[in-house]
Records
---
Amino acid sequence: MFPTPPILASALSKISTPFRRSQLGLFHGKTKQYGNNVPHSKHKTRRTWLPNVHTKRLTSDALGRDVKVKLTTRALKSINKHGGVDNYLLRTKPDLLGIEGMRLRILVREQLDIKRAEDEALAQAEAKIQLEKEMKEAKQKRRAKVAHSRKSKEATLNIAGGYLGRGRRLLELMCHS
């Protein structure tokens, strides 16, 4: 299991529920039930029923590892319904999770926030690289356009110079102005 933070440890010591064990796992609100044994003689004697608790290793995508936790079959069905332990922890009401569930919820949220921040930083870096690439391509297009216009001017001057001879100087002056 994970080390328990001091805040949760102090809260754990103050629990006064009749079934304290339910705070140490994912019990989804299941607690100890009380009732009577009633034989044929109708002489009632008190008894209790405990929830169906299992120890399971659940794969957490956010944490990137398996989490070993005690849980009831009802909690296991709810985890399957939510599509995994991460979604179950994030979507379930705190009073159904208990202290262990809230501790796991905090760990999952922190990991998801870290991953979200990393993804945003990566997206910003990719956007910056894409912008630089686009600027470089635009600069190359401008240079090619300028070079093309120079070549067309030179071609025009060469053609005009061949026909007019002295008129070449006049064309050069007209093109540069």
---
Amino acid sequence: MLINSSQACVQIIDGIQTDLLIQPFADRVFVQITQLGKVGSLIQVSIPTTVPLASNGVSDPSEHALPAPPAAIQLMPLFGSASSEHLRSLYSLYAAQVATLIWCAGGHMLGGSDRRSVIVGIALRQSTRTVEEGLDEHERKTFHETMQALASMLNKCN
């Protein structure tokens, strides 16, 4: 079953309103994640057709396990730029995981082995905490809750 119309929801994630949108098109899927009410950075995610993907659908959103993005994933910034190297890395992480969730939704959402490119728009409120390496607790919580919300949206499509 293909999604014929967009899926949207609003979640309060770590005390911040987060708007989520999944909009399929014939040649790609657009996903918007915003806490700022704007598009932010746009990143296109694609994968070669020769790379195998898990096609068993999106796991239970109450679980914290997420499907691992394939090593061959290709990220291409389209426009908009994060304000720091840390945010660029964080946005790349979001884009890769979002696309993997979309692709792993498999036959139900994308009509079988379709691997349309995924365009991810990301505009997140910047954490006020500074971390030398990796993600701080706020960023981890926001990431996991956002992915759980997207997985729930995809499960409703199946």
---
Amino acid sequence: MRRRVGLGAIQQQKLAAEKYKDKGADLQESQLEQMTKQMDVFRNKLEEFAMKHKDDIRKNSQFRKQFQEMCAAIGVDPLATGKGFWSVLGMGDFYYELSVQVVEVCLAANHKTGGLMELDELRRRLIAARGQSAVHQEITKEDILMAAKKLSIFGNGFVIHKLGKGKYMVQSIPGELSMEETNILSAASNTELGCVTQKQLIRDLGWNDYRTKQALDKVLGEGLCWIDKQSEEPSYWFPSLFPGRNAAIAAT
């Protein structure tokens, strides 16, 4: 007959398990403390680097982009840090000014774009609005994305949507885009004409007829696109993605 485990043995196993648990918690706490110290060192070194290369960061847009990538790599937000990197570098006013210009440019074009504008087009419009001075031309897409963070105070009135690799769309009308709307927008941005059809979405997104029609009706009802019923199948056109828009802006 098999001998049963005694009460003393059970208590010993329980004590051993608790010791392992306590030891594991101690190790986790120690590792977290070490990582926190390392991150503090990284931040301090990053700030020293920023001060050393202050002029390059301010004047050279490419250097500024690389600095932003360094910050992102270690999870540092220059706008949210306690010392405020951009304020230390004298760049705080630059981004506040740029964020105001983003609002002005987007709102001025809403009647044409339906409240959506590609980031590349926004940059071209900003450059045209800021003047011909070389210092005014030195703004990158990363600068615009950084400035757009300041617009979060407006809630969902100004939102940056990432549509794919390196592709962004700026929304400057109140309201949140659903996943279906974002997918439709992404599909349209991948076409040469900036338009989609119901059959195309069913094929590319794998949706059924009902889901596709509901999503298109919502996008149309919100004024984000126009519908063309002249062809055999209605097509939905996004003004912000019209072909030739960027060339026309560059020529003005």
---
Amino acid sequence: MRERRTKKAEAMFLRRIARPLMAKVKGTTGIVGLEVVPNAREILISLYTQTLYEITSVPEDEGYRKAVESFTRHRLEVCKEEEDWEQIEKRLGCGQVEELIEEAKDELMLLSMLNEMYWGLNLRKRFTDKWDAEWDPWGVPEDYECEVIENDALIPKHVPQHRPGPLPVEFYKTPEAITRHLEKDKPAVTSSESQPKE
């Protein structure tokens, strides 16, 4: 009886205390200026939760909100499901957890700036009837053309290449719904109307 209790106690000790201590510890990120974060999983969960809260101030029909919610929810789920940083990196396929932390902080900073711009416009509208505020955080004119610069230089073999994994299914639902809606709105050609010549 006593042996059985001892074995149970040993097993419980290993599960609760020794396993976290025996977890793999990352020595370096291999990226200059990017330090190893020992509690990266907890930080990511906190940042992703905060991002999902902050994004609620963006109008629901904005593509930016849909995209951010989609990939943030996916990343948060992976972080909650996986305990090990290696598994998080492997499943997300978006770089090291330290890089993900930097990206999440940048996203929160961008959201903060966009919210300041949006709410600042609405406050001006409230106090002066002359201002017509819309959600236009980028402020880029319709006719603006962006120059795309492609760099075909080879990447050295010692530099890790992080290829993003597949996007969550929710990301594709919006474009599919729009195309279906457009197809429904097309008027059907009746026999009395002239059909275009091919």
